[in-house]
Amino acid sequence: EEPSINYLHKLQNSAEARFNNARKTMKAISTSLAALFFSGLVAGTTHTDWEHIDRDECPTDASFTQACWEAVTPPFPICEAKTTAEWVTHALDSSTRCCGEDISECKCPVKDGAKFREKIGGWCDAVINECAATQGEEV
Questions:
Q1: Residue 4 and residue 139: Cα distance in Å, rounded?
Q2: Are 80 and 2 in contact (CB under 8 A)?
Q3: What pLDDT, on a 0 to 100 scale, did the predictor assign at position 9?
């Protein structure tokens, strides 16, 4: 006996709902990883502090300078969540809100803290001077 059309529609809707839930979950995980990355930055962990961490497993991309890669790439295994180009895109997007005098649009939960103010300048310089120039954007 062949399944009814209604049964097939319910099955399709169920599969679409599961797919949408999985997509939302992955987006939440990606956002959480980005938040962890920024939190590590402002909690006192700088990219130079990460030099002792094995990054051999992190994705690289020869189209970006080493300084850009070091500025945007979080430690392993977080670095595996995105490609280098995606980390650069994320950093450039964040820099428009978190760098400069007006950071009211910055989404970092600790943007008002002293450590954030202390560390963000070096990150902004690296992202703007190294990554934006690599992307051909105006600096």
A1: 61
A2: no
A3: 77
Specify the pLDDT at position 48: 47
Instruction: Find all residues with CB under 8 Å of 43, minimum gap 6, and list them.
Output: 110, 115
Q: Please give the mean pLDDT across all residues of the chain.
A: 79
CB atoms within 10 A of CB 127: 24
Short-list 89, 107, 88, 87, CA closest to 97: 107
Closest CA to 114 of 49, 44, 50: 44
Give the type of residue at 56: D
DSSP summary character for residue 74: P
CB 108 within 8 A of CB 36: no
0.90 exceeded by pTM: no
Distances in Å between the Cα of 111 and the Cα atoms of 40, 78, 120 are 12, 21, 9
Copy the structure tokens of residue 105: 């649009």
